[in-house]
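Onboarding guide, step 5: your first structure request.
Type a short instruction followed by the sequence, for example:

Predict the 3D structure of this protein.
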Amino acid sequence: MSVVLLLNGPNLGVLGRREPEIYGTDTLADIEAAVAEEVGARGWEVRSVQSDCEGELVRAVHHHCDTTVGAIVNPGALMIAGWSLRDALASYTPPWIEVHLSNVWARERFRHESVIAPLAAGVIAGLGSYGYRLAARSLLHLAAREPA
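The system replies with structure tokens like these:
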């Protein structure tokens, strides 16, 4: 069974009630179900990890490096200065997609640069929770291009 790592950083555990005008009303459970629906057609499963602590996210990346076919990563504010998360993702060999619910480039200037984005296979931002579905479809596409 192939597994996709769904990694969500600080403050994403309270989606649905956290600033819904920016982040929408879908909960993290809703997003997990949507990603599972997308990858389930290929027989893949989702392993979801959310933490407000960068070290726990780093540990999850290392733990799942050899057991997953790819990852969807919403680092939250760790995109700005999450250097240890960035270093962990640098050693994560399967493809992964960075996702942001809001369009970070339409927001405050400090959100305009991600320290992890240059390592990602792609970045999706500003499409709300639908961005996670697109990231899942992107991983399916990338996996289909990999030699068997």
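Each response can be followed by summary notes, for example: The chain has a mean pLDDT of 92.
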